[in-house]
Amino acid sequence: MAKNMAVFFGSRSCEHDVSIISAVQWMANADPEKYTIIPVYLAHNGGWYAGQPLRKLETFKPFKGESENVIRVLPDLTGSTQALLAYEERPRLFGSGKPKVVAKVDVAVPIFHGLNGEDGSMQGVLELMNVPYTSSGLVGSAVGMDKIAMKQLFQGCGFPVLNYVWFTRGAWDRDAEAVLSEIEREIQFPCFVKPANLGSSIGISKARDQETLHKAMEVAFSYDRRVLVEPGVEQPLEINCSAMGFEEDVTASVCEMPVSWEDFLTFEEKYIAGNTKGSKGGMVNQKRQIPAPIGDVLTKRIQGLTRDIFRSLDCKGVVRVDFLIDQSSEALYVNEINTIPGSLAYYLWEPIGVPYPQLIEQLVSYAEYAHAEKNRASFGFDSTILQSVSLGGVKK
Question: 165-231, superfamily in CATH?
Fold first, then answer.
């Protein structure tokens, strides 16, 4: 009997459209004999929608809301039915306005990029629903989204990272000159300025002097209240590697080297360039060398670090870790982890004999195993404390 697979995507994120592309790719590759796909689209306005037309890109050009085959839904957060419920636009205060069960969810697939989905918020909803889900959990998702927390964890684990400083919007508003002075003192030029909680190169700028640094800080703070600044690597090479698994069962993919960039890949270079009619879309369009031409020793080191990083964040499912190599010094640095990578990084698994449908199978398997492990824990504790409490405080 086919399992009901709810694929969640969209949401209020700067990477909303990229999420749609990744989700449509996933739904096209899931085995229809094993899974009944339930697309669940989170629109820009926060509304949740379900319906088979959401499996097609054309539905979002533009998205028109409810229709005959697209309905509003909400999750059942009791954790007892694992269901999606039909949503009434104007539920009655009294009467028969009870939401209607649309479908029971056997496994959930969060395919979000960025805030309000990849960052642990959706994972929290799925935990309340008590549904197996394919992405990393709350901790790995939240830390993997926040570049500052990520850097601090990597540094604490002893992973090689670039020097960095970070600031709040409040500090910038109070004394921008002091912030600029600290950056010049600690980081120097050129440097990269990054919003703490965005991906896909959105809001990232390279500063070469104080004028461009000031502008870069303003841009970054327009996207987030916390900003990271780190030195620019001269003649950098980017190497990416994916990892898949759960707990001790972690496998690293082949490594890749993007070849279409000089300073860093912009959002347009990652997702729009080459995205012509009839192409696969998503990260698969990006020019890259697979496997990366870096030799066996460095490849094995990067694969080992990728597995270690996966475990350090208690990740689950599939992630991609991005590295930088300083060609002048040959130093290797961990740049960031993507806990829900674009296109689910399937293009890094196909070269080693894991086609997309098989990748889906493995991620579902890890989701179900992790869910069973979670439910082995006790969630209740018999306490008598309420019996000794009154409105006046604890009895003595």
Answer: ATP-grasp fold, A domain (3.30.1490.20)
